[in-house]
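Async update (no meeting this week)

Hi team, since we skipped the sync, here's where things stand on the single-chain job. The sequence we agreed to prioritize is pasted below, unchanged from the tracker. I ran it this morning and attached the output directly underneath so nobody has to dig for it. Comments welcome in thread, and please keep replies under the output.
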Amino acid sequence: MKLSPRDAPGYFARPETNRAGLLIYGNDAMRVAMRRQEVIKALIGPQGEEEMRLTRMNAAELRKDPAMLLDAVKAQGFFPGPRVAFVEDANDNVAGPVTDALTDWREGDAQVVVTAGQLKATSKLRKLFEGHKNAYAVAIYDDPPSRAEIEGVLKQAGLTDVGNEAMRDLTALSRELDPGDFRQTIEKLSLYKLGDDQPVGPEDVAACAPASTEAEMDDVLHIVAEARPGEIGPVMKRLRAQGVQPVGLCMAASRHFRTLYAAASDPGGPAQGIARVRPPVFGPRRDRMQRQAQAWGAAKLEEAVTLLTDTDLRLRSAGQTAPDMALVERTLIRLAMMVRR
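Output:
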């Protein structure tokens, strides 16, 4: 039987122990693996593997020994409770042994859980599970998690008091990170809030979100956007000492000002615009960039983006003779003076 994407999350959290099997397949191996971990844990409990109620095998092992799966399904364990026979990285080459295991399955046998990559509609393995009366087949797509799924991850991590702004930031973050990195971020957030009774806020999300590649350049970019040209020189010296390359700094400045332009030109205003930008901006940095977008306005930000594009082209030009870092510093100073006009 097919399990719809809408019903799948609920089933993964509370699977039916009297089913013969479950096929989880999809293009993203990480998403498939996470769903498999979730459903197996729900079936056998956190101690199930230690109690030897989980038998693992991959497709290559099963091809060499086709009876391995049926033996695992029929085997009796030392500990009471549901059992799982798990086949990893399956394909149509193991459709025969899986068919035998499902055909001979009886109440009390181990449930067969199979994971696979992307399977065509004509796949023997997929047809087997979709046509079985006591087994499910579910496709895992690369869609971002729903709010309910995000709330489920937060609940598992012990985070039940999450503010609306923090939830908005987490939703945006879930669309930028792969599922594994997003779960790690939630776990980090859980540890960060350990012993803290206050609700999770946007500043907490910003503190735990993966650092962007522009983090070490943020100081000079904010100085420029906030029209403080006198502070640019000392920061530039520090960046030079750290080995920051002129082209990289120019590209970071271009991304920063394009983000400001996107926010300032949004029909709903800078506040709505900064919430829509990708990659998302979090916490205090978002508020700061929102103020910058309001101060500049769309027209001046368009000029700024043009100036940075011209500077980037000059840096890459074969006829460029001026020192690269000096050229970038002069452009940043011009930008810082521009907003005062």
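Quick observations from my side:
The longest helix spans residues 246-264.
The mean pLDDT is 88.
Reply here if anything looks off.
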